[in-house]
Amino acid sequence: MISISLCLIVRNEEDVLARCLDSVKGIADEIIVVDTGSIDRTKEIASSYTSRIYDFEWIEDFAAARNFAFGKATSEYILWLDADDIFMEEDQVMLLELKASLSPEVDTVSMYYHLSKDESGMVTNRLRRNRLVKRARQFRWIGAVHEYLEVYGAALASEIAVTHASTRHDSDRNLRIYEQRLARGEEFSPRDLYYYANELKDHSRYEKAILYYNRFLHSKKGWVEDNVAACGKLADCHAALGDQQLALESALSSFRYGSPRADNCCRIGYYHLQSCAYENAAFWYESALRAPRQEEAWSMQNTSCSTWLPHLQLCVCYDKLGQWLKAYEHNEIARAYRPDHPSVLHNKTYLEGLLLSDQSLDRSNASLSQTAP
What we know:
This protein is of the alpha/beta class. The protein folds into two domains: 161 residues, Alpha-Beta Complex (Spore Coat Polysaccharide Biosynthesis Protein SpsA, Chain A); 134 residues, Serine Threonine Protein Phosphatase 5, Tetratricopeptide repeat. It contains 14 helices and eleven strands. The strands form two sheets. Strands 1, 2, 3, 4, 5, 6, 7, 10 and 11 form a nine-stranded mixed beta sheet that branches. The protein has a two-stranded antiparallel sheet with strand order 8-9. The radius of gyration is 24 Å and the shape is globular.
């Protein structure tokens, strides 16, 4: 059985820290908590779980803080979390099993990161991250913000998931760090360009986000998954600014970098749906369902675009084309994923009324409910 050091960097996390540490109780052999300037009860709560609490002066550099924490670990492997992350019960069981069975030849273990769920508990956004690494390898974190752990060697992709369960977020923090770096005249790497553009988009600064997404793509040095994602995010920015044609062109440009992805197929389908080109829209939503699932992808995965959403939109398309039985079948598939979604329930009632009617149907005032990608 391997030994595990859990490393966290924290600041004012009194509302979530105990929940996080409870989820690894009995799994981690030691807990390292690095505090970057809390003024609440964070350190007091941490002291109930560990005596290994250290202060680190915050210098607007996440990698520096995480590397400091890793430097305090003494176990064979290092596990890292944020204070608002947890292991659900089933993942705790799998982590204990991994701890008992992991080969010492493995250098790094990746786990899913569940970022959001719908009202029924289905994961809607996820990605993979390296979570458990061999301490002897002395892997280092890189990047002041949106940092990543540079690893190599024997890797294992596990089915364990870390669940992000944030109760609050300093939404300006990352943008502030990037803009301070720009003000100092720092040259951004392609990765920086991409993540800075993401921050701009998240703050509805669409024109500037477009500028930096294009700079990132024109560098031709980005990771292929980030290239694909940047095209989709460009499409969303153009759509938010009301330029549907550029939104379409941006989504289509993602095909330069690889096979069609479900989310970009849904974006293209939505363009045609809004243009009342229902056969074209149906083609692209069907394409979203046929697109290869990125099960092991390390980029962000919007699972809605490969599950219930295309079926809901196909329901709309086939209704508009007068193929009501086909529309009903797609809505039923969507309902299997999202049984309480208001659009799905609306469509079910509407279509059952059509299919059960023996009279000529007056549909002039009837419409189905649809959802943007």
